[in-house]
Amino acid sequence: MVPVGGLWAFHPGDDMAWAAPGYDDTAWARIRVGETWEQQGFRNLTGFGWYRRKIVREPGANPGWTLAVTLPSVEDAAQVYWNGRLVGSYGHVYPHPVWYGEPQWKEFVLGRPVSGVLAIRVWKAAYAYESFPDMGGLTGAPLMGDAEALARLKTAHEHEWLRSNLYGLAVALLSTMVGLFALLAWLRDRKQWMLFWLAAYALRPLALLLVLLPGNSWAVGYGAVGTVISAEDAALWFLLLYLLGLAENRRLAMWTRIFAVTTVVLQLLEGSLQFFDWTRAPRFFLHADVGLTIPCLVLEAYPFVLIGLAFRKQLDPARWMVAIFAALSDLYTSADSISGLGERWTHWTIDNAIRAPLITVAGNGLNVGTISDSLLLVAIVYAVWRYQSEQSRKQSLLDEEYRNAQELQQVLVPEALPAVPGYQVSSAYRPAQVVGGDFFQILPVEGATLAVVGDVSGKGLKAAMTVALIVGALRTLAETTSDPAKLLQGLNRRLHGRLKGGFATCVAVRLEANGECVVASAGHLSPFLNGEEVSLPGALPLGMADAAEYATTRIALRAGDRLTLYTDGLPEARNAAGDLYGFERVQALVAAEPDAEAMAAAAAAFGQEDDVTVVSICRAGGGAARTPADLAAATSDPEPVITNRQTEG
User: CA spacing 20 to 30 A to 539: which of 82, 199, 257, 603?
Assistant: First the structure.
């Protein structure tokens, strides 16, 4: 095989007669292959140009092999003719053009090794923003010779490409693994948005590798690479927001979202230009390409804004490493994009300098961009690991606080009830979360017993802490008064101004041994006496008004009568279909005379959403309370019941 370099006959324009071996090309210009036609005087030439060269087989050459030709590089597409016969295409020429972003080694079999004329019809696309000062033509000298030898040479070339890109492939593989792990971690906990943005950023090398693979068309590569880079930019911005402790700044987060959407949309629009024929309006498409790209280049400076704001914060070294390497990586990307993308128009040569490798390792050239991107990836992975370690430590501390609160609540909400003379008392407490906002107390007082049930607004740890405050105050007040109304007034004074917009409902009952009961309510659900609600005067919940007044209501319990106190988690239980348990079911449930645990279990089985507390008080001398198994028929489909229900509050 031999290179067919040197001077070839060349003519701009297009005429299919130029493929004929007998065509007289003596008047054509002579230019070298391996150099662009713009370098040799044909400036601003787009469209078609023809190369011709006469090939002479040496006398006595062995005819037992197959002649072939290889084109190492063409800008942009070409058709190969041998003795006037079309033998293949490098891409596809106009009017249905397809060309490559990276040079391709294409082999064309010519047949028996005979003398002839090799004519190559080259088509150059209209200029885009990513255009260089000298373009067009056979930018690699063709090779001719034995087809098998050329095939081996192509294989060797592909092997060399793979070997020289091993570092980039390894980084892409490592980055992809990091991205997949981050994505899986985010899917387990959707609140950890930092992991999502890490995944989006870490998958960028793989995405770039796929869109820039040799063999992809220029339309695919040029159309998708901008979108990939803009999406990576947006992911890096959000990642920096979290890593640099800036996510709490709502205004900054809002502008980050605006800039992210802007850069991605602009690049999507720029990429969509590849669906159209540039040759019909080349100036329009060039201006559109430039106009959509320049704002994205300006936005590439946004990480410097985030890093500048982060200097006000006390960050650990891991996060400063991210900031520094992000600045270096972004500086390189911005400089490369501004100088390289518009090199034809600016004539800046800095792009060649910054792309030049600083070191070469096993044939892999590492330049400033490769090194800074690698360091940034390492820094981000390390910072995210530190961040997740901190979050795990904080979660462990929070879990410990919840456990402590749960233990405290178990002390405050009694499991073993004191004996109440003349009554059988059962209780059930089921918080919706680890800790809850319901409470109840059974307190012996002089000559009687106080039964108190209440519900604090809100859920979780804050509500549980309010419960601790209320129970402590309640036990203190019970030492000085057994009057339910005065008890509620004392609680209200202590809670007013301390609940920060919250409140608590409460019902207090003084049980006397002879069956007399005194009831007072602070906006709580009225208790049931047997199967009917007790009518109580309306009153404000605790903590809402400093001068709130509470009235008492006297009732008498006969032997077997049952007084049921409960919180709103019972009627507000909701099943999978969205239906509420409702007051009708509660009334039917109470009428079936269950114990407290059976009532709470019924709400939980229906679909518990809120804390549920039930206290059942039965005057001695009646029948035993019914169990959950006894209640199925009684509560499955209750008949509508009209009651005189007291509106809460």
Answer: 603
